[in-house]
Amino acid sequence: EGDSSGPYPTGTNSFPIIATDYYQLSAWVKVPGASTTPQQVTLRYRFEPSDNRNNTGTQTINTENWTHLTSPWIQPAGLAGGSGDTYLGYWVVNSLNNGITMDVDDCAMIQAAPYTITGQVVDGSNTGQDGVTVSGSFGTYTASAITAGGGYYSLSIPPANGTWTLSGIDPGYLGSVSVAVSSVSNTAPNIVLNTD
Questions:
Q1: Which residues, at least 6 apart from 136, have a Cβ–Cβ distance to it below 8 Å?
Q2: Looking at residue 50, what DSSP letter applies?
C-alpha cells in the first residue's frame, strides 16, 4: 500500500487468509503536531467470519518524525468445528482520537507459517510421561500441549525468534527447560519431572 493521508488511512481491504498461519501488520505513521499534542495511533484489523475487531501495536506518537508501528504476530480465531477464519475483512491505521490527520506510508502485512517446538517429558528414570501439560512462554506469546505416545509433545508457536521457557506440569510434579527458537522446527531438551 502506498501513501495515504487523513483520519482513517486504510492499510488494505478484504483478502483470503490461512487460519493456521500467523500475520504481522506494520506501517510508517507521521502525525503533524504530535510533538506538542501526542496522539495514540493503532493498527486495527478484523478477521472474518468471527467478526472480531482488534487494535494492536498501539503507540503514543510524540514526534513530528515518521514512527514505525508493528503488531505482534497474530493468528486468526478458530471457530467451533475447526473451520476458522478465512479472510481478513480489513486492516487500517487508526487514531484513537478520530479528529486528527496523519500521514501513512508503507503499510505491510507479513504472512508466516507457525514454528514448532517438539520434545519429550520424562521422569527421573528417563521414562516418557503421557498426559502431562506442557506450557510455553516467550514475552506475551504462550502455547500449550498435552504429552502422548511416550511423553512427546509438539507446540505450535508464533514465528518469533527468542528463548522460550517450557514447563511440564503433572499433579505433584514439575519440570522446566529453556529452548532458543530460531527456525521453523525446534527441538527442546527433555523436560524432567521432579517432585513439586
A1: 117, 142, 143, 144, 155, 157, 164, 165, 166, 167
A2: T
